[in-house]
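Async update (no meeting this week)

Hi team, since we skipped the sync, here's where things stand on the single-chain job. The sequence we agreed to prioritize is pasted below, unchanged from the tracker. I ran it this morning and attached the output directly underneath so nobody has to dig for it. Comments welcome in thread, and please keep replies under the output.
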Amino acid sequence: MRINVAISLLFLFNHILGQPAESSLVISKLAGDFYVFTTYNLYQGSRIPSNGLYVVTSDGVVMIDTPWDTTQFEPLLDSIQSRHHKKVILCIATHFHDDRTAGLEFYGRQGIKTYTTRQTDELSRKNGKKRAKFIIDKDTVFKIGQYSFQTYYPGPGHTSDNIVIWFPKEKILYGGCLVKSSVDSDLGYLGDANVKEYAATIRNVKKKCGNPKYVIPGHNDWTNTRSLDHTLEMAERLGAVPSAE
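Output:
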C-alpha cells in the first residue's frame, strides 16, 4: 500500500514537472512534443485553471489559446524558450472569450502569427476582446514542421464560434471550452451557449475526431479521455430540459 502511494506521488510530481500547486503557470508534458500549459484566474470568487496547448515543431512552437492570466503572457514565452530553445511562431484562439484570446494582441506584437476564425473575430470586435492578425475562413489544415493539425468548427455549443483542434496522426484532440473536464458537474458558463445544439455539436466532434488518445478541455483536469463522453451526457440532459418561457 505504501509503495502504491509513493508511486502515485512520484507520478504527480513528474506530471507537473516539479512546479508548485499554487504556481501561476504550470507546464505539463502531454506526450512527445505536446505540452499543456495552465494558468489561473478568478471566476465568481474561485481560482479557476485554464488550459492551453503548445507543440514543439522543427520550425518553431505552435500555441493553441493564450494564457487567461495576463501576467503570464511573457513568462510562458520565456519558459518555452528556456525549455526548448525555440520561439513561438503561431497562435490560434478557439473562441472569443478572454480565457482564449486575452494574449492575442500581445503575441502579435512579438511577431507571432495569431489566428482566429472570422466568426471569432467578429464576436471579439463586437465584445471588445483581443483580436488576431490573421483570419481563418473555413476549416483549415496547418502543416508546421513535422506536425499537421486541423481546425474544425463542429457547430455551436459553449459559444456560437467555438472550434476544436485535431491532430489526426497523434490522435490528440484539443477541445477548448466546448469540452468539459470529466470532473465537471455541469457545462459551466452558458451565457453565450447554444443549449439546444450543444449535444449535436459534441456528436459532430466525436464523428470527426474518432478514438482520441488525449482530450484537452478548456478548464480543470485533462488526464481523463472520457471528458468528451461526459460532456455529451451533460449536454443531452440539459438539452432535454424545456426552456422557461
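Quick observations from my side:
The chain has one domain: 22-240.
Confidence is low (pLDDT under 50) at residues 1-21.
Reply here if anything looks off.
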